[in-house]
Amino acid sequence: SQKIEQNSEALNIQEGKTATLTCNYTNYSPAYLQWYRQDPGRGPVFLLLIRENEKEKRKERLKVTFDTTLKQSLFHITASQPADSATYLCAGGDYKLSFGAGTTVTVRA
Amino acid sequence: DVKVTQSSRYLVKRTGEKVFLECVQDMDHENMFWYRQDPGLGLRLIYFSYDVKMKEKGDIPEGYSVSREKKERFSLILESASTNQTSMYLCASSQGSNEQFFGPGTRLTVL
Question: I want to staple A97 with a disulfide (CB 3.0 to 4.6 A). Which of A67, A91, B16, B72 is the partner?
């Protein structure tokens, strides 16, 4: 069955550094990959969408890549801040999404 | 400001009770979704609806049913709640293949 895997459950980094999160997909080829942020006790909030024919997309301090050869997306938070601490979810598909389990990022001041 | 609302933030029910979770969106979106979220498992799709009165099973529909009588409202029904349905339930809506907008979630505990 189609699967989205986020390799790390948790990532701890120092403020100002770049956080890099990995998302791999298996058994299908999603037309889109999406990234969401989720704070404790709240619903996910959409951050970025990247299409399979796009290599890279940026939004402020966020950058997402989509490598169809490696079947992988990388999500970068540059110049990280404590306010970036949250769980980040990767999702693949089109109108119907499959979600990864998420990576919890903690940014230390 | 676009919004997805869910009827309750917290709910405690007893085994065997019938449970209704309601979701309302104000964006005139065609698609609506119900997920459950459990630690380590991520979001799993229970059901989704792509139009009024239309529904499709997701990955884990057993023990659940849904109703969409109006475009803005999508209800999740647990016919006979069981303890393994204790979870966080999240509703979302979307237009086409665009991003999904999520509600705040309902934390359901079945005793």
Answer: A91
Nearest to B90 among A43, A91, A101 (CB): A43
Cβ separation of A43 and B104 shorter than 8 Å? yes
pLDDT tens for chain B, residues 1 to 111: 669 999 999 999 999 999 999 999 999 999 999 999 998 888 999 999 999 989 999 999 999 999 999 999 999 999 999 999 999 999 999 998 789 999 999 999 999
| A92 beta partners | A33, A98
Tokens at A55, concatenated: 């290599």
What is the Cα–Cα distance from B4 to B88, expressed in whole angstroms?
A: 16
Residues 8..37 of A with a Cβ closer than 8 Å to B: which?
A: 9, 31-32, 34, 36
CB contacts under 8 A, A 37-96 vs B, are 41-46, 49, 89, 91, 94-96
Residues in chain B within 8 Å Cβ distance of A89: 42-43
For the B4-110 domain, the top CATH level (class) is: mainly beta
Q: B77 is written with which tokens?
A: 């029904």
The domain ranges of chain A are: 3-7+16-93
The residues near A42 (Cβ < 8 Å, ≥ 6 apart) are B104, B105
Cα dist from B2 to A38, B27, B100, whole Å: 17, 6, 11
